[in-house]
Amino acid sequence: MHAEVVVEGPKNDSAERAFALATPEAGVVVAAASTEPVGGCGHGMGWFLRRLGVHLLARLTDRPERGIADCLADTIAETAALHGARCDLGHEATPAATVVACRVLDHEVQYLVLGPGVVHLHHDRGPSSRMTGPDGPLAAARARPGIAAYAGVGTARLYSLSGASLAADGTARPPAGITLTFGSPAPAIR
């Protein structure tokens, strides 16, 4: 799998609004779910996005037996634990993020969208397919691991795909994204 990672947000604070990274087996894009100031947490939005993104990428690659939404739930719990006692994670303005991810596992691609993001699957034959995440109050990763159950998830057979595009628009304009190209054979998590 070849990945092209793009994070272009507002010129002065793109690192605080979006984060994207990829390995040969997985890709993750996270973006701030709100332009409002963060409250209840002294770490800031950039810290939250980086921790959430790095931990999710690690879970997707080191826990192939876990479902992709379960990996997100694990990640949210781990990130919340890093806040420590000085942060009020019950505060209504605690950091929140759109999350878009995929991984190659054996002979399939698993994908997840939580919030206003999108996964485009590029099929070898036929039109691309599109998956978006849920809208509304349950549409952002915060400090509640149970929110992962609301993510849109799916799978596709790897042999039928030439690639995928992941974008989390959140508040990053233009959106942060990853374009993945699947070669033959694609590395897979086993």
How does this model look, in words?
The protein is of the alpha+beta class and 190 residues long. The protein contains three helices and ten strands. The mean pLDDT is 82.
Question: In terms of topology, how is this protein built?
Answer:
Blueprint: E1 2-6, H1 14-17, E2 18-22, E3 26-32, H2 45-62, H3 68-83, E4 97-105, E5 108-114, E6 117-123, E7 129-132, E8 152-157, E9 161-168, E10 176-181
Helix pairs in contact: 2-3
Order of SSEs: EHEEHHEEEEEEE
Question: Helix/strand/pairing class, anyone?
Answer: alpha+beta
Helix content: 10-25%
| Main sheet specs | 5 strands, antiparallel
Which percent range describes the beta-strand content?
25-35%
Number of contiguous helices: 3
- Rg over CA atoms, rounded to whole Å, is 16 Å
Shape: elongated
Give the overall average pLDDT.
82
Task: Give me the side-by-side strand order of the main sheet.
Answer: 1-10-9-6-7
Model regions low in confidence, pLDDT < 50 over at least 5 residues: none
**Total strand count, please?**
10
Distance between the termini: 15 Å
Characteristics of this structure?
190 residues; alpha+beta; 5-stranded antiparallel beta sheet
In short:
The protein has 190 residues and is α+β, with helices and mostly antiparallel strands. The chain is 20% helix and 34% strand.
